[in-house]
Design goal:
Elements lengths: L2 H19 L3 H12 L22 E11 L10 E8 L2 E12 L3 H15 L10 H10 L6 H18 L11 H15 L3 H12 L20 H6 L4 H6 L2 H12 L9 H9 L19 H7 L13 H9 L8
Helix pairs in contact: 1-2, 1-3, 1-5, 1-6, 2-5, 4-5, 6-10, 7-11, 11-13
Amino acid sequence: MTPQEFTYKYYIDALEAESKSGVPAEFILAEAAVLSNWGNKVYGNNFFSFPWDRRSATNRFLAKAYVYHKTDRYRNSYPVVIDVKLHGNSFQYFVKMWFNSYPSARESFIDFSLSILNRYPHLMINKTNATNFVYALYERRYWSNVNQRNRVLNTIKQIQSHLNLPYANKVKENHYQFLIGVLEISNLLKINPEWLMTVMWAESRLNPQARNPYTRATGLIQFMPATARGLKTTVDELYKMTNVKQLSFVYAYFKNYTGRMKSVYDLYRVTFFPISLGKPKSWVFQTKNLSAGLLARQNPAVDVNKDGKIDGYDFERYVASHIKKQTA
């Protein structure tokens, strides 16, 4: 899993944990990323390597770990002791021990955030951002050295860069809720949320009231009247919706293509002309009931070379013109 994929997949869970504890979501996600190598080394959904505690987790798993003690009196404290050696002023135990196993990442994130709340309740009095929260934790010796602190700080910056979705600054209505909704449905559809933001920007400039005067296509992804009816609504009802409410219909439209959209071009093909998905670039966009010429006249911007028809080459050049650097 890449850092970008990790951020998009688990940010919603970190926000849920923040709502339970007040601990900043970006700090929760950064600590999870550091301790689990961006989700590539995690077992039992235990992103924080919490030892088993029957009060917070009913299930457990056995795994190898290094633990440190000031004396050599803990050989009977673990199911399996593989090795013990002197390490500076402490004894390093290499053991097999029990760890919490969680039903999902969300439970793990919540458990971690509540443990921080219990240890540092005074830090929650004044709401702060993730970076300042890390500095406050370091002052209270949460980490043993500055390198550990800096690693988390750098990870927070990386997470923040991934959360800066293309065209996000163009969202004026329900800004925060809308972007969270984009992340949620992108996770469900198994697509990059940057693709969805790009498609919605190209189709409607992220305006849920955008309407094509010729076809009456309406909304974030320009729902056609027949498409709206298939989704148990109408273009007039869609026109009245907020951007957040309309996202549920965006998800419903794409739902049947989950797993088949492998790029921003695929996502846009499904949006613009679904039967074109999987067709070669030389294929001309048309149906028995819709001629290539009429489609090109209705969508002149997509007919890039102005030859009176739209093929895959035209379409991909049109999409590429809307892709910001981080989406490519």
